[in-house]
Amino acid sequence: MTVPMWLQAGFWGFVAGAALLIGAAVGYFARVPQRLIAAVMAFGSGVLISALSFELMDEAFRRGGFDSTALGFLGGATVYTAANWVLSRRGAKHRKRSGDRQPSEHEDEGSGLAIAVGALLDGVPESIAIGLSMLAGGAVSTVAVAAIFLSNIPEGLSSAAGMKKAGRTPLYIFGVWASIALLSGLAALAGYTLFRGASPDTVAATTAVAAGAILAMLVDTMIPEAFEETHDFAGLIAVLGFLAAFALSKLGH
């Protein structure tokens, strides 16, 4: 029996999102040194930069040319930055920090909801990109799924460790990440079904929107956490992550 493409899109989006839950479990139950968390975060940043460069932007340019790709890329970064700015002012600024930077609900009322919404904001563009990747050849981009999966583990790990130190309950922490894993599957499904009959320019622009949002997210949230603890080694570790994803992309082709 052939599995419908829309169901496959939802499945792969959920698989990539489930890495957040895996990372959260490690961050909550294990005593992982902050320098190691930051190093893994730097590696994940390099992985995502490579994936958005060689999988998303390259595919967007191939489909719609420079104009659609550039407009979508800038648009995605602008929308993400505006939404992140609003959430940061409501207590979600340090949602990916593993140290003592995250506020508790007592310190900043409403920050728990802002952190949850911020985590969702970070994950949606990646998931939509998975669904869009299936429009090209009728199969998911294994490189995109692998890159997002690898980058989601340190993201969930770091954020969950910070949530625990801020006094968040296990129900809140795992409820947030389980919900985002489920919504990641729905976002990937939407990315495939909503744009299946769209024009090449529209698909290109939407793919570039996801890429722009992901890059803005990296610079605003993941890279600061990586640099804060690893300092001079953050760049080298990110390069290793970039190279790993680059190798995956070449093996995939």
Based on the model shown, name its key terms.
253 residues; globular
Summarize the structure.
The protein has 253 residues and is mainly alpha-helical. 83% of the residues lie in helices and 0% in strands.
Shape: globular
Mean pLDDT over all positions: 83
Number of strands: 0
N-to-C span: 27 Å
Q: Which structural category fits the helices and strands? A: mainly alpha
Order of helices and strands: HHHHHHH
Radius of gyration: 17 Å
Biggest β-sheet: count, sense, barrel? Answer: none
Number of helices: 7
Proportion of residues in helical segments: over 70%
Beta-strand residue percentage: under 5%
Contiguous uncertain segments of 5+ residues: none
Note down, in words, how this protein is organized.
- With 253 residues, the protein is mainly α.
- It has helices at 5-29, 34-92, 111-137, 142-165, 170-193, 200-230, 234-252.
- The protein contains seven helices and no strands.
- The radius of gyration is 17 Å and the shape is globular.
- The mean pLDDT is 83.
List the helices and strands and how they pair.
Layout: H1 5-29, H2 34-92, H3 111-137, H4 142-165, H5 170-193, H6 200-230, H7 234-252
